[in-house]
Design brief:
44% of the residues lie in helices and 22% in strands. The protein has 404 residues and is an alpha/beta fold. The structure holds NADP nicotinamide-adenine-dinucleotide phosphate and magnesium ion.
Length: 404
């Protein structure tokens, strides 16, 4: 078989622990035998981030901007416990995802992978629901204050022109708590554009919800920016028969539960944090959740939504063959190939991404799956738990047939 050619390299960001092991297995078994793989490799493994003083993360983000498509393995975000586990760390390095996200200024889209044998907890959800989470500001970049006596809290904005605006937040007669949050028009606008573009690319309706009846100015601004930006996408939406639909967050929750799925639900930062965990759990498993970061200029970075699966890694180190689910990591690669193929007009490469996903579905639909999924299978479906390696071998076998 002649290998499928590539033009532009993918930015490949390697990672940590069990996902790093899976990363290599996926390349060896599912990619290198079929594709003449071109990547620009960045080792985002924790120790290499430490050696480079985290410069490698910045370099990887800049390369992503340059080439347009990246695929990332899960990485450790060090905390206190990790500092003890890896005494050579010179600093508690920041989350690579946070660093990359702030350099690319993107929106995160999370899409569950669904199969017939595993039904969503919500029985009428037939198609996946994609959560588009605004990843800047609000409570995540807010300041808090706890005060102890009666008094008045005010909020003042000082413009660079010298103009000042002051508002009374509240007068209180005892101890109280306070919070100051913000967002920027620029960030909201790029969030809106990313959502409309993603809806067009994936041919799905877009829902957006906030609480503008209560937060009239704050959430009201989100709503009106979305309306303004929609004007630039309206014609394309109409041509594709898609709708943009705005509703209050509480109404959205009720409608989402009653829906059949198959749409994008755009959420403000906090709503997206909470709702994406709700949606992914209801669809089955964190191991089946893919994630893509899309920047306003169209730059994309594909990854799995789960972490480095530490517990499995320690079992792997003891020589045990683990049954860690590689689906979301495989789909990060397939997503990147499809995108790269489209950008470079390489239909064969895009087709490879498509076939790789089909081979995964064929394997799962044959009842061959990792342990985490077996327990979720509906009565009437047969399922057998296999190790990660056996699962990948089964996918490889089917992929070979599909590519013939
Ligand atoms: P995690 O790696 O997602 O794993 C949590 C648990 O979920 C696992 O112990 C496992 O349960 C199950 N699980 C997750 N992915 C699975 C898979 N592919 N196959 C089978 N089971 C899977 O989360 P964590 O333990 O909280 O975090 C571990 C490290 O990952 C941390 O250092 C964190 O910083 C990092 N992290 C990175 C990212 C990222 O790079 N995007 C995201 C989140 C966390 P059982 O053990 O019960 O089988
Ligand atoms: Mg969360």
């Amino acid at each position: 078989m002649t290998k499928i050619a590539m033009k532009t390299p993918l930015v490949e960001m390697d990672g940590d622990e069990m996902t790093r092991i899976l990363w290599q297995m996926i390349k060896d078994k599912l990619i290198l035998p079929f594709v003449d793989l071109k990547t620009e490799y960045y080792d985002l493994g924790l120790l290499h981030r430490n050696e480079t003083k985290d410069q490698v993360t910045v370099d990887a983000a800049m390369a992503t901007k340059k080439y347009g498509v990246a695929v990332k393995c899960a990485t450790i975000t060090p905390n206190k416990q990790r500092m003890e586990e890896y005494p050579q760390l010179t600093e508690m390095w920041k989350s690579p995802n946070g660093t990359i996200r702030s350099l690319l200024d993107g929106t995160v889209f999370r899409v569950p992978i669904v199969i017939p044998a595993i039904k969503a907890v919500v029985k009428n959800w037939e198609k996946p629901i994609t959560i588009a989470r605004h990843a800047y500001g609000d409570v995540y970049k807010s300041v808090d204050l706890h005060t102890q006596e009666p008094g008045t809290c005010t909020m003042t904005f000082k413009g660079e022109s010298g103009a000042e605006t002051t508002l009374v937040v509240q007068k209180v007669d005892g101890p109280a708590i306070w919070q100051g949050a913000h967002n920027t028009e620029k960030s909201i606008r790029s969030f809106a554009r990313a959502c409309f573009q993603y809806a067009i690319d994936s041919k799905q309706d877009l829902w957006f919800s906030t609480k503008d009846t209560i937060a009239k100015v704050y959430d009201g601004t989100f709503k009106s920016i979305f309306e303004e930006e929609f004007e630039n996408y309206k014609a394309k939406f109409e041509a594709l028969g898609l709708t943009y639909f705005y509703t209050l967050i509480d109404d959205a929750v009720a409608r989402v539960i009653r829906s059949r799925g198959g749409f994008i639900w755009a959420c403000k930062n906090y709503d997206g944090d909470v709702m994406s965990d709700m949606v992914s759990t209801a669809f089955g498993s964190l191991a089946m959740m893919t994630s893509v970061l899309i920047a306003p200029d169209g730059t994309t970075e594909y990854e799995a939504a789960h972490g480095t699966v530490t517990r499995h890694y320690y079992r792997h180190l003891k020589g045990e063959a683990t049954s860690t689910n590689p689906m979301a990591t495989i789909f990060a690669w397939s997503g990147a190939f499809k995108k790269r193929g489209e950008l470079d007009t390489l239909p064969e490469l895009a087709n490879f991404g498509q076939k790789l996903e089909e081979a995964c579905f064929d394997t799962l639909n044959a009842g061959i799956m990792t342990k985490d999924l077996v327990g979720l299978v509906e009565p009437g479906f047969e399922a057998k738990a296999v190790t990660s390696e056996e699962f990948l071998d089964e996918v490889a076998k089917r992929l070979e047939t599909l590519l013939k």
